[in-house]
Amino acid sequence: MSFFTGEQMIFFVDDDAALREANVQTLDLANLAVEAFPDAASVLPRIDAAFPGIIVTDIRMPGMDGLELRAAIHAIDPGIPVILITGHADVAMAVRALHDGAFDFLAKPFASDHLVGVARRALAHRALILDNRRLTAAAAAIDSPLIGESAAMLRLRETITQLAQADFDVLIEGETGTGKELVAHMLHRQSRRSAASLVAVNCAALPHDVAEAELFGSDQIDRATGKLGQAGRVRAAHRGTLFLDEIDTMHPAVQAKLLRVIEEREVQPVGAAAPEPVDLRVVAATKTDLMDAVRAGTFREDLYYRLHVVKLRIPPLRERRSDIPQTFAYFLDEAAAKMGLQGFQIDDGVRRHLVEHDWPGNVRELRNFAYSVVLDLPSDPGLSAMPGEASLSERLRRFEATIIHDTLTQTQGNIAETMARLGIPRKTLYDKMQRHRIDPKIFRT
Ligand SMILES: Nc1ncnc2c1ncn2[C@@H]1O[C@H](COP(=O)(O)OP(=O)(O)OP(=O)(O)O)[C@@H](O)[C@H]1O
Ligand SMILES: [Mg+2]
């Protein structure tokens, strides 16, 4: 699954053609995607708040200079890193620019390694900002109720309420789309910590080289700016909840430091002389069995046992099929309400098809399907009847084919990986591929 979509990109701005080409080549050789611009006016229209990359710009340019460009970009999105290139004598000006919010500066002449290093750091920073925004947006959307009246869901809801008040660390296990993030937020909201923040970290989106400072903070003073380092997500979660999503992907070096946070309830920021106490609850989530990662040597056993004390397993939809019609109806109504429609009925045939489908993407898939059905309905408000059994089963079939197709594309035709991601056994996958006439070989490159 991708957390950070959109190609990361460096926009390099310099009016000096020779320097521009040399630096673009340097970045290109370092495998960084880069695009060159001769002036501020040509780059600005290309920037919006979703821009996934960074800007490197010369300060002295005809027309709008680098400092003005920095300000204009930050008026669009203050979270876009801007790196300034200064002449030898301009260092004082550069320091002022840093103070105003530039990410870093490069004083001419600079080594190509230095340019690449600063650019990489800025790109990682940008990726984290966007990832954090995504998580925050997801958190805002996540006050939806947990749906399901099956025995498993009743038990789950009850356990969440008990655990929320007990303040234990919790490990949430569940396939993709089963509601791990939703449950993490419920645990937080129902706890005595709800007045403080839930700080979400997607471990899979955290590049290893910045993970330590990002999580545990840094007290190092930046030699160039004189600015103190960052607080880190652990300290940001003080008195609240730290939600570590995709914990199985956490780098071993980071795992060691996390263990200390969990065992001692203290954090030692990078460069700090002594640890400081933190008061938080750790909620971790994983799609895979963490024990497999322990056996494979990628996950610390001691951390595993610490996290495993209280485990919440969220069952996939196919293990609680009786919840499918109700959940579908809920999302159907939700989607319809957003479009000003109402009064959908599901007939028995449709119900049977829904219940028989395996829903490898679980609730997320069911939700997407409900929305796609509503979006495809004729827009006549008098006609709020559901499509009949035949057309719905045909849609389900197409929907399933699309998911298998997409997963095979992502895994480049790797069957084992496709089985794992979809959570279905080999035979089922082969049956489905045959039924949909999908040939896995064509996805292999
Ligand atoms: N039991 C449920 N009732 C209502 N909505 C649910 C339920 N489970 C999941 N959802 C919804 O399904 C979507 C996916 O849930 P969520 O993001 O929590 O899944 P996840 O387990 O974190 O998946 P992934 O591992 O892919 O990140 C969200 O829109 C969420 O609100
Ligand atoms: Mg999730």
What does this protein structure show overall?
The protein is α/β, with parallel strands linked by helices. The protein folds into three domains: 10-133, Response regulator (Rossmann fold), CATH 3.40.50; 142-313, Rossmann fold, CATH 3.40.50; 319-443, Orthogonal Bundle (Helicase, Ruva Protein, domain 3), CATH 1.10.8.60. 47% of the residues lie in helices and 11% in strands. The chain contains 18 helices and twelve strands. The protein has a five-stranded parallel beta sheet with strand order 2-1-3-4-5, with helices on both faces. Strands 7-8-11-6-12 form a five-stranded parallel beta sheet. Strands 9-10 form a two-stranded antiparallel ribbon. Helix 6 packs across helix 7 (180-189) and helix 14 runs parallel beside helix 16 (389-410). The two termini are 20 Å apart. The site of magnesium ion has 3 residues, from helix 7.
- Do you know the CATH topology of the largest domain? Rossmann fold
Q: For the largest beta sheet, what order do the strands appear in spatially?
A: 2-1-3-4-5
**Tertiary shape:** globular
Strand content is 5-15%
Largest sheet: 5 strands, parallel
Secondary-structure content class: alpha/beta
Hetero groups bound? adenosine-5'-triphosphate, magnesium ion
| Strands, total number | 12
Provide the CATH architecture of the largest domain: 3-Layer(aba) Sandwich
- Number of helical runs? 18
Measured distance between first and last alpha carbons: 20 Å
Topology:
Layout: E1 10-13, H1 17-29, E2 34-37, H2 40-43, E3 54-58, H3 66-76, E4 82-86, H4 91-100, E5 104-107, H5 112-140, H6 151-166, E6 170-173, H7 180-189, E7 198-202, H8 208-216, H9 233-236, E8 241-245, H10 252-264, E9 266-267, E10 276-277, E11 281-286, H11 290-295, H12 301-307, E12 311-313, H13 324-338, H14 348-356, H15 362-375, H16 389-410, H17 415-422, H18 426-435
Bound molecules: adenosine-5'-triphosphate and magnesium ion.
